[in-house]
Amino acid sequence: MSQIDIHEVLRYLPHRYPFLLVDRVIESSETSLTAIKNVTVNEPFFVGHFPKRPVMPGVLIVEALAQASLIHAFQVLGMEPNPNTLYYFVGIDRARFKRPVEPGDQLLLKTALKRRMKGIWMFACEALVGEEVCATADIMCASREIP
Q: Which tens digits make up the pLDDT trace of 117-128?
């Protein structure tokens, strides 16, 4: 597996602006994936979080990790999303936040496949700025057919 640009990211994820939180995949394998989210001052959430000292909300860091995990699952399967299927973020365990993410940071989103069974995928994830860990979490994703 290889790097993928924003055009291919858009093929894997149903999310669009302002909720698309993966800009590029820089490395992927069967067991791990590293993606990038470039954090810019003109992100809509910075207007209110917080006006005097903008900080990316932790829930959006976790959502970015979930989006990277979904791309990882599709790459492991060697397929693209089915338009009749929705892919859900179904669980999070052991979420920890260790450093604020601010405008100008480049967030590295790392996922490692822990296990998969019966359509549920579990990933160990971490978000970093440079070498510094910002957040960690175990994330679960699942697919469901649209009725």
A: 888 999 999 999
Coil vs helix vs strand at 16: coil
Distance of CA 132 to the CA centre of its chain: 17
> How far is it, in rounded angstroms, from Cα 75 to Cα 80?
8
Q: Given 7, 15, 49, 72, which residue is catalytic?
A: 49
Determine if the peptide bond prior to 45 is cis (ω within 30°). no
Active site residue 49: yes
At CB < 8 A and 24+ separation, what contacts does 46-54 make? 46/103, 53/102, 54/102, 54/103
What topology does CATH give the domain 6-145? Thiol Ester Dehydrase; Chain A (3.10.129)
pLDDT tens column, 26-52? 999 999 999 999 999 999 999 999 999
